[in-house]
Amino acid sequence: MSTQTALLKVMSDAARKAARGLNRDFGELNELQVSKKGAADFVSAADLKAEQTIFEALEKARPGYSFLGEERGLIEGTDKTHTWIVDPLDGTTNFLHAIPHFAINIALQREGAIVAAVTYNPVTNELFWAEKGKGCFVNDKRLRVAARTRLDESVIGTGIPFLGHGQHAKFLKELHQISQRVAGVRRFGAAALDLAYVAAGRLDGFWERDLGAWDIAAGHLLITEAGGKVTTIEGEENVLETGSICTANLELHPLLIERLKAAA
Questions:
Q1: Cα 192 from Cα 199, distance rounded (Å)
Q2: pLDDT for res 24
Q3: Could you give the maximum distance between any two Cα atoms of the chain, in Å?
Q4: pLDDT (tens digit, 9 = 90+) per residue, 70-95?
Q5: 180/202 Cα distance (integer angstroms)
Q6: Which H or E element spans position 172?
Q7: How many other CB atoms are found less than 10 A from the CB of residue 109?
Q8: What's the CA gap between 52 and 199, in Å, rounded?
Q9: 66 pLDDT above the threshold of 90
């Protein structure tokens, strides 16, 4: 059953609305206004505009919900039980380099649990979505995580720490442990889409540290609803709080955790 509920429709409409502006700006990259935000961490006018569009659309549809966005931080609403968690443009560096691999991420947290998720790539027009207990979909197709059970047949996604961010030495140890045992490691530059790809069975697994809640909230639900397992790299549950994530199907997940622990 791939009919969206009213809630999912609100989220999807907000993502598509923001995508219109992003697609326009993506087509006119030479005119993008870009300001620097820390070392090698760019934020563009497009990013801010997309977040504003999403904020207004969600606020209109569900007045009073709190809002946690990458750009504006937490805005507390009158309804303390619901929080939107939003990344208006995950894959900013790809976007700025005209690489068509970026996404809009919207998740809804209800009393601490993620209950609905949308990850949208405006370039491919792929809308990944899930609601707690109702399965995971891309557009109108039901998704399941990949069925591979051997690391040597698996392709695993990751994120590489960049200038001024993350734990480079630790990452290299982890990469050494994983890369010599798998069919391939991929680094696409947009964690939101990497997680959606795990849910879709395109990647067999994924690991990364130092992510924001807005990078992983939607993907966490997509993967869980597609039958996968999501924990921290240490194997714990508090993924959103730590920003550390390791995910795969039920057979591969413990094998990845074992390799990552060997790197410690």
A1: 11
A2: 86
A3: 51
A4: 888 999 999 999 999 999 999 988 88
A5: 20
A6: helix 168-179
A7: 21
A8: 28
A9: yes
Tokens matching residue 59:
């606020």
What is the length of the chain? 264
Which domains does the chain show, CATH number per domain?
6-142 (3.30.540.10), 151-262 (3.40.190.80)
Q: Cβ–Cβ contacts within 10 Å for residue 16, how many?
A: 16
**Per-residue pLDDT at 44:** 64
Q: What is the DSSP letter of 3?
A: P
- Of all residues in the chain, the percent with pLDDT exceeding 90 is 81
| HSE of 60, CA atoms in CB hemisphere, 13 A | 10
pTM, two decimals, is 0.94
| Torsions phi, psi for 99 (to 5 deg) | -95, 120
3-class SS at 214? helix
Burial class of residue 177, CB neighbours in 10 A (0-12, 13-18, 19+): middle
pLDDT at residue 166 in the model: 73
SS3 169: helix
Q: What's the pLDDT tens digit per position in 224-260?
A: 999 999 999 999 999 999 999 999 999 999 999 999 9
Residue 168's φ and ψ, nearest 5 degrees, are -60, -50
Helix (H) or strand (E) holding 213: helix 213-225
Beta strands across the sheet bearing 155-158:
184-186, 155-158, 205-208, 245-248, 229-231
233, 245 contact by CB (below 8 A): yes
